[in-house]
Design goal:
CATH architecture of the largest domain: Orthogonal Bundle
CATH superfamily of the largest domain: Cytochrome c-like domain
Number of helices: 17
CATH topology of the largest domain: Cytochrome Bc1 Complex, Chain D, domain 2
Largest sheet: 2 strands, antiparallel
Strand content: under 5%
Order of helices and strands: HHHHHHHHHHHEHEEHHEHHH
Radius of gyration: 22 Å
Helix content: 25-40%
Strand order of the largest sheet: 1-4
Shape: globular
Structural class: mainly alpha
Number of strands: 4
Length: 429
């Protein structure tokens, strides 16, 4: 064991020297093995936490996609979802979607041309990142929050964990300009770079009636693509809204009753009469943010070296080579209202089985851990949301709730993933 610890310390320091300490820190704080994301191409990490894990990743040469018609969801939303809101000043067209998809996966849009939007929002990992608790930007720079999924992001009126943005057209610029994400020095820098890229010649003009790349058209194109990532028509939808009694397992049905009843989950993850987004689009203090800000760090951290193999590493070793995450006060940073400290947005639960790790800081790797956290009543603090309380759920009841949550996966996941793989990837020449 001592030899393992020495080897790990060397490993940590090598990461730090390479400017990748943030990657190690985020791997330490939580890696989640999710459920099957897609049976098609991609990097499937199901069961990674088990000692008998076997890789199912396939060759990049086989990571081929198939373009799909994504516009149909705007005219006919899937069962369980309301009509997709589309702003009047940015109607979605095929040309905009194809351009937006190209931009989304283009690494040249970052300062050093190594980072794209799709590297934090990985298609086959639930359009988030199953491997990192919190995101990592260019050169291994620390990002303090988990990358939220962009499935069904078209329905959001509050964007980001703290709700600081209100439109997708505006949101796209924040990661592109953030020093610890894509790190571009200015909007003009991005615009001029795209103007110089020959493979974008006439694409903007075609999509926007003669207008070239600009602060508006770049945001509008990426937003148009993101609005098509709509996923519903899940087994739950067929059972609850479609009245198909056979569509859901008995365990999931019991879980739904607990979700709406004893567990009280539906107070925040709301369900309508005809549709359900499973979010109140509001902000709540569960205690996790407070704990990270004012709590004490454990003296040791369990570090996963390989499937089924973890070793404890002293916190001071990690702190000596890794950048400590910046402070995070949640919604307060937007409103400056002291009562909003450590409040974060209620996430949408659709496709939640695909989008581990969970919470704003990626604290939990599995849905069972999330349910157990709420069953304990969160973390007590002076501003704890009054809806958070000990639930008194039994082990079997928690298993039923997890079964229900797993039933919320849409039927078009593989279609959206394969379409993403069909995107022309911009790269340095």
């Amino acid at each position: 064991m001592n030899q393992i610890r020495k080897s790990l310390k060397t490993f940590v320091r090598i990461f730090a020297l390479c400017g990748l300490s943030a990657i190690l820190v985020t791997l330490i704080t939580g890696y989640a093995a999710g459920l099957e994301v897609t049976q098609g191409p991609g990097d499937n990490r199901t069961g990674y936490e088990s000692a008998d894990y076997e890789s199912r990743s396939i060759s990049l040469l086989q990571r081929t996609g198939k373009a799909a018609d994504l516009l149909h969801v705007l005219q006919s939303p899937p069962l369980g979802l309301p009509p997709v809101p589309v702003p009047r000043d940015n109607p979605v067209t095929q040309a905009k979607v194809q351009l937006g998809r190209k931009l989304f996966f283009d690494r040249r849009l970052s300062l050093n041309e190594t980072m794209s939007c799709g590297m934090c929002h990985i298609p086959e990992q639930g359009f988030t990142n199953n491997e990192l608790a919190t995101s990592v930007g260019i050169e291994g720079r620390t990002v303090r929050r988990n990358a939220p999924t962009i499935y069904n992001v078209a329905y959001f009126s509050n964007i980001f964990h703290d709700g600081r943005e209100t439109r997708l057209e505006y949101q796209v610029w924040q990661p592109m300009l953030a020093f610890n994400e894509m790190a571009n020095p200015s909007i003009g820098y991005v615009v001029e770079k795209i103007r110089r890229l020959p493979d974008y010649t006439r694409l903007f003009e075609t999509a926007f009636g003669g207008r070239g790349p600009g602060i508006e058209t770049i945001g509008m194109a990426i937003a148009a693509y993101e609005r098509t990532l709509v996923s519903g028509n899940s087994p739950f939808d067929h059972w609850h809204f479609g009245k198909d009694a056979a569509a859901l397992s008995e365990s999931a049905k019991l879980g739904f009753r607990l979700f709406r009843g004893k567990a009280g989950c539906a107070a925040c993850h709301t369900i309508g009469d005809e549709t359900a987004l499973f979010t109140d689009d509001a902000f709540h203090n569960t205690g996790l943010g407070w704990q990270a800000s004012v709590g004490t760090d454990p003296s040791e951290v369990q570090v996963q070296l390989a499937p089924g193999i973890k070793v404890p590493v002293p916190r001071n070793v990690i702190n000596s080579v890794g950048e400590r995450p910046p402070s995070d006060l949640g919604r307060y940073e937007v409103t400056q209202d002291p009562t909003d400290r450590w409040r974060y947005k209620t996430p949408v639960l659709r496709n939640v089985a695909l989008t581990a790790p969970y919470m704003h800081n990626g604290a939990f790797g599995t849905l069972r851990e999330v349910v157990e956290f709420y069953n304990r009543g969160g973390v007590t603090n002076p501003l704890l949301d009054p809806l958070i309380r000990p639930l008194g759920l039994t082990k079997s009841e928690m298993e039923h709730i997890v079964a229900f949550l797993e039933s919320l996966t849409g039927d078009n996941v593989e279609t959206l993933v394969r379409d993403a793989f069909a995107a022309p990837i911009g790269d340095r020449r």
